[in-house]
Amino acid sequence: MATFLYKLGRLAFRRRHFVALVWVALLTLAGVGAASAPPAGSTSFSIPGTEAQKAFDLLEQRYPGMSADGATARVVFKAPDGEKMTDKANKATVRETVKELQSGSEVASVADPYAGHAVSKDGTIAYASVKYKVSGMELEDSAKDALKDAGQDARDAGLTVEIGGDALTATPETGSSEVIGIAIAAVVLVITFGSLLAAGFPLLTAIIGVGIGVSTITALASALDLGSTTSTLASMIGLAVGIDYALFIVSRYRAELAEGREREEAAGRAVGTAGSAVVFAGLTVVIALVGLSVVNIPMLTKMGVAAAGTVAIAVLIALTLIPALLGYAGRRIKPAGEKSKLLGGGRTPKRPGRPNMGTRWASFVVRRPVAVLLLGVIGLGAAAIPAASLELGLPDDGSQPVSTTQRRAYDLLSEGFGPGFNGPLMVVVDAKGSDHPKAAFTKVGDEIKGLKDVVTVTPATPNKTGDTATITVVPDSKPSSATTEDLVHAIRDKGADITSATDTTVLVTGSTAMNIDVSQKLNDALLPYLALVVGLAFLLLIVVFRSILVPLKAALGFLLSVMAALGAVVAVFQWGWLSGLMNVEETGPVMSMMPIFMVGVVFGLAMDYEVFLVTRMREAYVHGEKPQQAVVTGFKHGARVVTAAAVIMIAVFSGFIGSSESMVKMIGFGLAVAVFFDAFIVRMAIVPAVLALLGKRAWWLPKWLDRALPNVDVEGDGLRTDADRRTDPDAEKELVRA
What we know:
alpha+beta; elongated; 11 strands; 24 helices; four-stranded antiparallel β-sheet
């Protein structure tokens, strides 16, 4: 592989005009596609194989035209102190608001609070339910504005009016902190390279890669049903790895220049060595992201595949566009150790010959491996303790900031009708095979009334053919509580008994039941997913490092970092530690998909640093250095780059903490913390300590396995002889023959 990539790097360096033109054309094509594509429609959220999804699908069949996936809203009214919603003046005001709501072209129905018994027992709170013909993502802005403005006359009359429901769904905003993250990345790159031009290449290529990836996602959003979170995730990961991969190549190029090589030769060797590490690091990220399809949640699968595509683009850009840009830069890119004149180049160093920080740190770790190993493991173990209290759930209006009208509507409904009113359960009774459907509907309702923690059970509402009915059950506890989850399981257990006695099928659905099913499905898929992703990456790393213990150590180190990161997420988003600093206005359960998502993404990103850092160690070991000295050499050449890459990735991920969407905020924080733990504690401390303790055993591989594995030559050993016999006129021909 190193030889092939070496040829590719030299070819891209020489044919830079063609390479640059290809990438500009791809960016233009993706941009035109995004601009001309139809707007994305509704983002369906289906969970195949769950009971809640089966019930939802049944409703679509048996209740045609009911717009089961249509947006809903609740306009909640509260009377002033000393008054009631049943007072004549207040009743007239509410009915005028209902009439105004009914005038919208996308409105399917509006329920009058007084006709539907939607007034609290004390008479102080009432609500009007609004049903739309289209989903919240498809709802026109004019309809949302009309919904917000409808209660203004009621407010002017002295009533408190708040609005909840998914009709007010808005596209999340990341805020200015994302730009700050990129600015920090730029500063780190300038410090690392000592050159504005060299620092600009990783940023430029990463932005081009993300531009192509996100524009392609936008162009395909309508056809493939891709949500806004998909492009946000792709840009988050694509930007981070794009900068890192380019950083690795440019850094190695400058190191090759410092050894006295010609610029084209240096570009070829940089792509052949650091580029090999980039390819395998990118493969681990792609495996981890594509592996999310194991969970069998379409939305999660699409997010993973889209982000993996953006990572693949980042790898290709690093291997081709970076050497092309280096060709354009010429002598303006200085060898390693030299700075541009603008940043202090040409000055005499204060202490010439002094080992760099990476060398000094690695030497210390090699001398004290046991102490460093214990300190790192104990520290990560302590950070992971909060993960034992992990509670999972999906966000609803109760997790919104208290400043939003959705959250205030949620609180008013809880005050007037009980905490379970915000998460009603819908029981669907399929009596198509029953001889007495009405009797079956009644029996199901009576059985549910006898269960604990049930406040209200509405009479069954049959469809036109009379073979299916829906029953609404209001729990006594809030939607995200364990008590509500127990009630869902109790209804399902009772439904199994009713099925055998009445020849009916009883299914429980609704947003609360769907959330419970999603959490269970994600929990069940976590171990198989972990085994698949870690197993495939383990085999890949055996090929890269030609070792058993090094990949095993990499996997165990990853588990430490991801558990510590989950502990930090629990501490901030569930316990509320530092919540003000992170702008977390409301604590609660951690998003259900967070653990499995972090496992996938963090594993892929963790292997970036593992591959780049340890390949330099293996390169030194293969070239004759002793194991401990190889560790120091690896840090001498790689520590500065890995540190810069980690700081950049942390800065980029931290930028998404400013998002208005809790899911994106939590992902950004979790990934930033995970990268910090993995890069600075696992890869910079635990890895060299373990390798120092293992010595030559770290690179042991059974002879039979050594013969069976392909030699990918990541360390570029083959370039020592191959490069000398290369000639410029034949480079393209050799690339074709390879």
